[in-house]
Amino acid sequence: MRVAPQDLPSSKFLLWAAAGAYALIGSLISLLTLGPIAAVLSAVVDTGVLLGLTMLVLWIKDTGERYTQTATALAGSGAILMGIALPLLILQAKLGVDGNTLPSLLVLVLMVWNLNVVGHILRHALDTKFFVGLLLSVVYLYVSISVFRAFFSQYATVAAS
């Protein structure tokens, strides 16, 4: 966590590549509990929530010029961490949903790590304290889960049956 979002090049291509990777890996993870169409839609919606909330937070703080680098950092780091989580989630699915397994613990560790990474990125993007960035990362997680539950929870139960 030594690199800040402002250290990334401000590149629309890099943003699209990072967002695409984030959506692709999100789709693969969603396929574990959803059908193919719902999995892709949930990943696209999650990517939109990530990019939209990033834009909103930067706009509120009047630092919109940092959007490309911040969104690239968030999507890129999210894609990397989801890529690490994917095999653990596959193993977790094969072992069952019991939370007392090593893959479950490692997924929890990755989730906490992700919250810290997002907090670090937002701290730099907003020129604020780490606690504020961390708090915003928890808000993002809550919004993301709420949106998923609102739109896709009925498909998860159908796909799991």
Could you characterize what this model shows?
This protein is mainly alpha-helical. The chain has five helices and no strands. The relative contact order is 0.16.
Morphology call: globular
- DSSP E strands, number: 0
- Overall number of domains: 1
Q: In DSSP terms, counting alpha (H) and pi (I) runs of 4 or more, how many helices?
A: 5
Helix-strand pattern, N to C? HHHHH
Mean pLDDT level: 88
Approximately how much beta-strand content do the residues carry? under 5%
Gyration radius over CA = 16 Å
The amount of helix comes to over 70%
Q: How far is it from the N-terminal to the C-terminal residue, by CA?
A: 41 Å
Quaternary form:
single chain
The structural class is mainly alpha
Low-pLDDT parts are none
Largest sheet: none
In terms of topology, how is this protein built?
Layout: H1 12-30, H2 36-60, H3 67-95, H4 102-126, H5 130-160
Helix pairs in contact: 1-2, 1-3, 2-3, 2-5, 3-4, 4-5
Provide a compact summary of the structure.
The chain is 80% helix and 0% strand. The protein is built from 5 helices and no strands.
